[in-house]
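=== Per-residue structure ===
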Amino acid sequence: MDFFPNMDLSFAQVQCLVRGLHTLAVTDGVHEREDALIREFFEACRPAGGPSYEDTVRHPFTIEDGLEHLRSAELRRMFIKTAWLLAFADGKITTPEREQIATYAQGLGISDADNQELQAQVKEFLLGKLSHIRNTSSLAEVAKQMKIV
């Protein structure tokens, strides 16, 4: 299974994802890594002459926005997975981030069990990126902090 299967997104879907991620980042104060990741994604997808990042995030994400633009279960799961990735970007997941992702998942029809599974997939993916580290005690500490072990 691909961590992120290849998906063609419309720019309206990209804007929806960006608004959702930005709204998540704001829940506990936007960290510079979070902002950089969201902006980079937006700029990579923005068509020439398209609206700016600032114009796009001016209006916060709503569940109705997600339901309108993320119509398939696959898109909704990808959004929640991306939200978990963003939550890990600053090195810690805060209670407001956890609650916001749970609200997103519930509103988009993703069960608590599926939301927890998506979070576990993200943790496994991130740990897999670190698997080349030979310092196993450091790797174990990272896993402990991510609450994987």
The radius of gyration is 16 Å. The mean pLDDT is 87.
